[in-house]
Amino acid sequence: MTAQHPSPWPRFSGPAAPYGGGDPYADYRTADFPFAGLTDLADRRLGAGVVAANDEFFAQRENLLLPERPLFDPEHFGHKGKIMDGWETRRRRGPSAGQPWPAAEDHDWALIRLGAPGVVRGIVVDTAHFRGNHPQAVSVEGASVSGSPAPKELLSDGVRWTTLLPRTPVGGHAANGFAVPAGRRLTHLRLSQYPDGGIARLRVYGDVVPDPGWLEALGTFDVVALENGGRVEDASDRFYSPAANTIRPGRSRKMDDGWETRRRRDRGHDWIRYRLTGQALIRALEIDTAYLKGNSAGWASVSVRDAEGGAAEGAGTSGADGWREILPRTRLQPDTEHRFVLPAPVIGTHARVDVFPDGGISRLRLFGSLTEQGATALAARHREPAD
Ligand SMILES: NC(=O)NC(NC(N)=O)C(=O)[O-]
Prior knowledge:
With 387 residues, the protein is mostly beta strands. The protein has helices spanning 151-154, 212-218, 372-382, and strands spanning 39-40, 49-53, 77-78, 81-82, 87-88, 108-126, 137-143, 162-169, 175-179, 186-194, 198-199, 201-208, 221-222, 231-235, 259-260, 270-288, 299-305, 324-331, 337-356, 360-361, 363-370. The protein is globular and about 80 Å long. It is 6% helix and 37% strand. It has 2 domains: 34-208, Jelly Rolls (Sandwich), CATH 2.60.120.260; 212-375, Jelly Rolls, CATH 2.60.120.260. The protein binds allantoate ion. Allantoate ion is lined by residues 58, 81-82, 84, 88, 91, 133.
């Protein structure tokens, strides 16, 4: 059975026209998905991986999670066929000359380990450049398995898989987006394509739910990092690069790995606002301008706000809007890591970095630990709801 999934945005199905030459993205079909601002839990840069697939004859499963948009070179053929930037299986066949077609339930599958476990809220199955060889339908299931399970363990009968997206038709050369009702915290996904075909990318948007026991054992950790459940709520500028780059793991390795704003021609300044893992006590911070040389921010300040507390605690005083500056406007050097120890720990649930007048920073790190209230709230989110 193929389910019809209700959707407020255009639903793409059926084949895309053959490539007509020129810009291969000219007839690509996409929409503004409301969940696309959330963290991609299947981001390779967070440590996600495609741990197994039943077939990857034409194109390797790892391509599914590449952060870049898929490439298409019409001239590029290899020994096994057209080189495709995605996961592509061979054509399925029926059992006999009289019955050459695949059976209704025939499908190919790939197992995905999420980079950061969490609650999934939306999925994009992107079939960019798959024209005539995209799947007819897809489904996605999720599981929560602790530790570091081998593919064999994930495929064993003991694993409870929850359907996130029932078998649903998808279109070729399109970003097929699906909202997912919030459910339990998941660690792994199973992507199936019916009966076979190619998918360029899989994006799994949601809320990171870190392991409270792990964070407690660490003691001090980065309370704004994506992997710990921090996220960008809003930013003044997304022209060159996403603001979420500033809270990705590790140091930036090239300019577009950080956050660079366009040149301002007014008297304003740029900023990013973040939500932290939970209510936290912040003790130290880092601002990195790695690979931003002629376009590093000139100065930066950092402020926090406690949306859950009563009277603000710690050094400094809050403004009328509840924001308290914890790092005054400070000169930044290009391509440099800047470290600051706060005179006293400060409690916050949100943070903001303001850069003057424009330019970029590559990373912001806020080191601290959850308050008792923050730890209790995270433990509740981590507890598995029945589904
Ligand atoms: N033109 C193609 O892409 N053909 C085949 N796929 C590859 N990658 O060669 C196929 O059967 O779908």
